[in-house]
Amino acid sequence: MTTLVGHRGAPTLRTENTLASLRLVGGLGADAVEFDVRSSRDGTPILLHDRTLERFWGVPRLPGELTLDELRQLRTGAPDERIATLAEVAESVPIGLVVDNKEPDLVPAVTAVLRAGGALERSLFIGEWQVLTVVREHLPEAEIVLSWVGPELPPAQLLRSVRPQAVNLRFDSLTERSVEQATELGLRMWTYCVDDSAAAGRALDWGVDGLISNDLAAVRPSLTNANRS
After folding, report:
1. Domain coordinates of the chain in residue numbers?
2. pTM value?
3. Looking at beta carbons, which pairs linking 88-93 to residues 24 or more positions away fall under 8 Å?
4. Which of 8, 71, 98, 111 suits 124 as a labelling partner, its CA being 20 to 30 A distant?
């Protein structure tokens, strides 16, 4: 059974990484939602992908330069869209959480928030090795999906260090051989971003275990048909 994951929520419908976006994902048939975490100036884990606040929030500054109260004043134009905290996600988004923490130093705080919100057991951690190495040290039993660039799998030394259960390759560089190599190593294969039915069908034919999508409505029928066959 392939896991379908909403990429930063449902970004074709609402602004990515907002609660409004994340809350749509379950109704669109996804099993989990992926989102990005950074820190406010006062150390609160908040949702944001980019290094700065400019693209969606109109402020060319780092999130770590603003307090949580200052961040909460920012708007996209939609009255119900504002910067979300990880605590809000843990408490109000009931499906699986795929956490892409961008800051290694934030790992303890992210863990504490997920645990306090009763969401740690339904969370897994995805992203780059620099952060995931810290996650593995802090949470020896964590489920980890290691993102990597290119059709080749991460080097053996890195796999031994991070000990991921799955690797995550960009779909435009994924090959059937990549999936086979992961299977040979006892790893699951995830891929991102798959946003049309043809691409989803190809990924499923190759045996991908996790599919991250910006357009869940476009790819969900392919998964439904695959599960029926």
Report:
1. 3-37+86-228
2. 0.97
3. 88/19, 89/19, 89/22, 89/35, 89/47, 89/117, 89/119, 90/114, 90/116, 90/117, 90/118, 90/119, 91/117, 91/118, 91/119, 92/19, 92/23, 93/19, 93/22, 93/23, 93/25, 93/26, 93/33
4. 71
